[in-house]
Amino acid sequence: MKNVLGLINLHENEELLKELTRQRPLAAVPFGGRYRLVDFVLSNMVNSGIVNVGIVVKHKARSIMDHLRSGKEWDLARKRDGLFILPPPDHTHYSNSIYKGDLEHFHNHVDFLQRSSQEYVIVAGSHTVYNTDYREAFRYHLEKQADITIIYKEEQPAPGKQYSLATLVKVDDGGRVTDMQVSTGRIAGGPVCLETFIMRKSLLLEIIEDCVAHGEYDFVKEGIVKRLGRLRVYGFPFTGYMAKINSVQAYFRANMDLLQPEVWQDLFLKSGPVYTKVKDEPPANYRDQVAASNVLVANGCIIEGRVENSLLFRSVRVHRGAYVNNCIIMQKGEIGPNAVLENVICDKDVHISAAKRLIGDKNYVMVIEKGMKV
Q1: Range(s) of the chain covered by CATH 2.160.10.10
Q2: What Cα–Cα distance (Å) separates residue 15 from each residue in 18, 126, 291?
Q3: What is the CA radius of gyration of the chain?
């Protein structure tokens, strides 16, 4: 797929994730012990043979740039093509709430698209976590002679926050997409769009120019949905594990899913490895009398207490006498002696002092924001 350009669109709705995205874009939110959300879509592209990737950043670019650096870990540090960060042109412009939509940003970087040598483009977001090889979907796109191919998963979600910001598609028996519902609060269920679109680069440029000229700036709603009747839009079904990170509860649930071996294997092994920023740290250290059950523990951790049904990211320390159950503890978190945590998300560099008791609800987890000391 060297003839395909990858375009990762980070203009994503963070309304229900403010506790985790206050200091970073959604794409840079840690996930699964040692990864960031952007690692999954970027690894999908690299594993599919894509060698030219642009990342359209909406705001708070420093965190994502620090994580991706030159793209070496994804084999994208190249003399030709490679990894390109496409930052917002003016942070002040967006902070004043004048931002119109992702097509405005696409239009600001249209020269990047024009200069790329690839004929086709895959546009994808970072908030949908799944592992796939795009080559099969690309072959389907060519066989159908489609203008746009949308990758979707056959889901039947119940109405509620889990899919309140999802895009649903209607697909007929021939695979043609006949309708799409975007960002509805109450949905009846149906195939869920993975926010991944395949098309010719020339068509994308045409959509950008036409929409911006008519004052339309939403890529999905105004660039694709309004053209369903004019273009040959097909759906390609995805059958593996998929999670949409569109709320704190969805983030918590997706991480907890990784404690199931079949989910972990599907997400990390099925279609290729997931790459991330390399950090050289020692293996996890389980001290005497430790009790750990059904946990996912990253390297650099020191565990002296009791941990159950939880994820510990890199360099977390759980002191003696502490009890951690059904929790997510991110990088360099420290749980003091005899502290008790249940149904809690601790962001990076959180320190819980001795004997503190923090109890959240399974349906409404407690979030301790980055760098806090409790």
Answers
A1: 285-368
A2: 6, 15, 37
A3: 21
Identity of the residue numbered 293: S
Q: Are 342 and 325 in contact (CB under 8 A)?
A: yes
Q: Output the pLDDT for position 158.
A: 52
What gap in Å lies between CA 293 and CA 151, rounded to an integer? 37
The DSSP H or E segment spanning 238 is: strand 233-238
Residue 242, CB half-sphere, CA atoms under 13 Å: how many?
27
What pLDDT, on the 0 to 100 scale, is given for residue 93?
46
SS3 14: coil
- 3-state class of 326 per DSSP? coil
Specify the CATH superfamily of domain 285-368.
Answer: Hexapeptide repeat proteins (2.160.10.10)
- The residue ranges of the chain whose pLDDT is under 50 are 91-95, 159-161
297's enclosing H/E stretch is strand 291-297
pLDDT digits (tens, 9 = 90+) for 61-92: 899 999 999 999 999 999 999 999 998 876 44
Helix axes 38-47, 61-68, angle to 10 degrees: 40
CB atoms within 10 A of CB 75: 12
pLDDT for the residue numbered 244:
92
Looking at domain 4-268, its CATH architecture is Alpha-Beta Complex (3.90)
DSSP type of residue 230: T
List pLDDT tens digits, range 248-285.
999 999 999 999 999 999 999 888 999 999 888 899 99
Give the position of tokens 């097509």.
103
Q: What is the DSSP letter of 158?
A: P
| CATH 3.90.550.10 residue spans of the chain | 4-268
- On whether the CB atoms of residues 305 and 321 are closer than 8 A, the answer is yes
Residue 56 and residue 85 in contact, taking contact as beta carbons nearer than 8 Å = no
Q: Where are the alpha helices (DSSP H) in 219-294?
A: 248-257, 261-268
Alpha helices, H only, the chain = 18-21, 38-47, 61-68, 91-95, 102-108, 110-115, 134-143, 201-213, 248-257, 261-268
Asked if 149 contacts 143 with a C-beta cutoff of 8 angstroms, the reply is: no
